[in-house]
Every structure is written in structure tokens, then in C-alpha cells.
């Protein structure tokens, strides 16, 4: 073997090792990027939900309270009643469980939405033959729904028991001591399927939020109306993003709110120890209403309480959801900017 052969072999081995190191570096960078994106989503969920926790609890109490035994009659009165009867802790009851649920839910939801957008956009460009094609509102709705299905499916049992912990009061005959105790109790007494009651009505809301937020952001950047965006701007400011998030929350909660009411009521099915949930008779003497499914829950709610019952708790939810969604979207993008993550929602 000549010296040239040795040099050539050494050079070739060095080139191969460089390729291997480069591939490993890319893989490591991708993993770090994904972890940072998940972390940003989790922080966004925790911050946004904690900020509006009292309104979140009041909304759920209004959604499921017995119409024959009204305790919470409006946003201000309801918050005052909780403060008077349960104190500061009552306003934030269930928030720890909610954060334990919302952190992984939000992380998976934001990340799943970005990945779904990437996959759908790739298929759309391949089908149309246009490499410059962008996602339409309908495709974004599909990506949002996909993200909602993945996120809800992975964390729904925690949402289910969070609803029950939020509803229980000091006077409830039976007390869930925490999320793990509630999960084990529901599983033991009502079976595995009970942990997923109300899952189906949860999906549209998430899809609508993402679709409206992303479509509105793109429209503002492209058309730059009313002087809201500078002509040379390539990204929206924090205030404008808050406005887009608020609009997304308003549209999503208005359209999908009846589904949220039905979801909460379905979660209470089989729970005979609640102090105040919807019943079929006056003064709560009869057993709680039982629902065989989503359609049956809609029918019985309208039959027993009228169409307006589908919008119980809408006012505190409106007050809550606009800042909550806005804070979540902006916190997510701000945390990603701080961490230096290149992957963006709008990408």
C-alpha cells in the first residue's frame, strides 16, 4: 500500500466520520427543538389557565348546576358566592389539577398542530403541483382538529376528573382528594370508558381556535389593513397577536360552546356524590340525569331546560376565554423566541 493510498483512505474515513457527526448533530438539534417546542406549549397552557382559573371554575359550576336549586346566578354574584363560602382557595379549586392536565395537553396540542400543518401542506403542494401553495382555512381547521384529537385523547381522563374536582364543594358527600385519587376512583367505580365521557364534543373547539388564529395572522400580514401592520413587517407585534388570539377565542367559544356544556354534563354521568348537578326533578330529589351519548345529552338538556341551557356559563367563559386564548398563543410564541426555536406556528 502506497503513501497515497494511506492518505486517500484516511481522507475518506475523515469524510465519513464528518457525515456521521453531521447527521448526529442534526438529530440532536431536532430533538432539542422538539423539546423546546413542547416546553413552550406547556408554559403557555399553565400561564393562560392560571390567569383565568376563578372564571373557569365558575363556568363549569354554571354549566352543571341544578336548575331547581340555583346558587350561581351570574358572573359577579357567582364569584362573590364562591369567595364567601369557600374563600380564596375556592376560586382556584381544581387549578392544580387543571395545570397538571393543561401542561402536557397544551404542549402536545401546539406541537401536533405544527406537525400536522407541515404534513398537510406537503400533501397539498404535492397534489396541486404548486410548491408555493399555502394552507387554506379549511386545511388549517383540519390540522387544528387533528391536533385537538391527539392532545385530547392523550390527556382527556385528567380533564374529566378535573371537571368533577372543580364541581365538588365542601358540602359534597364524597370528596376526591386529588387527581390520582379521582382517576383511580372513577376507574374502579365506573370503569375505563367513564374516563372518556364527553370526549367527542371536545374536538371542534381546538380546530376552530387554530384555524381562526392562523388565518387572521396571515391575512393581516398580507393585506396590512388599517395600518395595524407596518408595510415592511414580516411578523406581527405582541399586541396584534393578542388581538388575533382574542378573535380566535371569541369565534371558537361562540360556535362550539354548546358542545362544551354537553361535554361537562356527560362527564358528571355516574357521579351520584355531587352536591349540585343537573337532576330530572325539582329540588334535586331525583337521580341525576343520565345521558347515553352526545345527541341524547343535547336532547335532554333542551327538553328539560330549554335551548338557553346550552349557553349556561357563556358570560364568564367569554370573559375568560378571550384573554386565556390570547395569552396562550402569545406566551407560546414568546417562549419559543426566548429559547431560540426556529419552528413557528405560522411556518
From TrEMBL:
First-listed, main subcellular location of the protein, grouped into a coarse class = mitochondrion
Q: How does it sit in the membrane?
A: Multi-pass membrane protein
Q: Name one GO biological process term.
A: organophosphate ester transport
Q: Which domain of life is it from?
A: Eukaryota
- Keyword Oxidoreductase present in the record's keywords: the answer is no
What keywords sit in the KW lines? Membrane, Mitochondrion, Mitochondrion inner membrane, Repeat, Transmembrane, Transmembrane helix, Transport
As for subcellular location, the record says: Mitochondrion inner membrane
Q: Where are the Solcar repeats?
A: 32-119, 135-223, 236-338
Entry GO terms, CC = mitochondrial inner membrane
Q: Which PANTHER family match?
A: SOLUTE CARRIER FAMILY 25 (PTHR24089)
Give the family from UniProt: Belongs to the mitochondrial carrier (TC 2.A.29) family.
- State the protein's name: Mitochondrial adenine nucleotide transporter ADNT1-like protein
Amino acid at each position: 500500500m502506497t503513501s497515497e493510498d494511506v492518505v486517500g483512505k484516511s481522507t475518506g474515513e475523515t469524510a465519513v466520520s464528518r457525515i456521521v457527526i453531521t447527521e448526529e448533530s442534526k438529530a440532536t438539534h431536532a430533538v432539542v427543538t422538539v423539546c423546546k417546542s413542547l416546553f413552550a406549549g406547556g408554559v403557555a397552557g399553565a400561564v393562560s389557565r392560571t390567569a383565568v382559573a376563578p372564571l373557569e371554575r365558575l363556568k363549569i359550576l354554571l354549566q352543571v348546576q341544578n336548575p331547581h336549586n340555583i346558587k350561581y346566578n351570574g358572573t359577579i354574584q357567582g364569584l362573590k358566592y364562591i369567595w364567601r363560602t369557600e374563600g380564596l382557595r375556592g376560586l382556584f379549586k381544581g387549578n392544580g389539577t387543571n395545570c397538571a392536565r393543561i401542561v402536557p395537553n397544551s404542549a402536545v396540542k401546539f406541537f401536533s398542530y405544527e406537525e400536522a400543518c407541515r404534513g398537510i401542506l406537503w400533501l397539498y403542494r404535492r397534489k396541486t403541483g404548486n410548491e408555493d401553495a399555502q394552507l387554506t382555512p379549511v386545511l388549517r381547521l383540519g390540522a387544528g382538529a387533528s391536533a385537538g384529537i391527539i392532545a385530547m385523547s392523550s390527556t382527556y381522563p385528567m380533564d374529566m376528573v378535573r371537571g368533577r374536582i372543580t364541581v365538588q364543594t365542601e358540602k359534597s358527600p364524597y370528596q376526591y382528594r386529588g387527581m390520582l385519587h379521582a382517576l383511580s376512583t372513577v376507574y374502579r367505580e365506573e370503569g375505563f370508558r367513564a374516563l372518556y365521557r364527553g370526549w367527542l364534543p371536545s374536538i371542534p373547539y381546538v380546530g376552530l381556535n387554530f384555524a381562526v388564529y392562523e388565518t387572521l395572522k396571515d391575512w393581516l400580514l398580507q393585506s396590512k389593513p388599517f395600518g395595524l401592520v407596518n408595510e415592511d413587517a414580516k411578523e406581527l407585534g405582541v399586541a396584534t397577536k393578542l388581538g388575533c388570539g382574542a378573535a380566535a377565542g371569541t369565534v371558537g367559544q361562540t360556535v362550539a360552546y354548546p358542545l362544551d356544556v354537553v361535554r361537562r354534563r356527560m362527564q358528571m354521568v355516574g357521579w351520584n356524590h355531587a352536591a349540585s348537578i343537573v337532576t330530572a326533578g325539582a329540588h334535586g330529589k331525583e337521580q341525576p340525569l343520565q345521558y347515553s351519548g352526545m345527541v341524547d345529552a343535547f336532547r335532554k338538556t333542551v327538553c328539560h331546560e330549554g335551548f338557553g341551557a346550552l349557553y349556561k356559563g357563556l358570560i364568564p367563559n367569554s370573559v375568560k376565554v378571550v384573554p386565556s386564548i390570547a395569552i396562550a398563543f402569545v406566551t407560546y410564541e414568546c417562549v419559543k423566541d426566548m429559547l431560540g426555536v426556529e419552528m413557528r406556528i405560522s411556518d
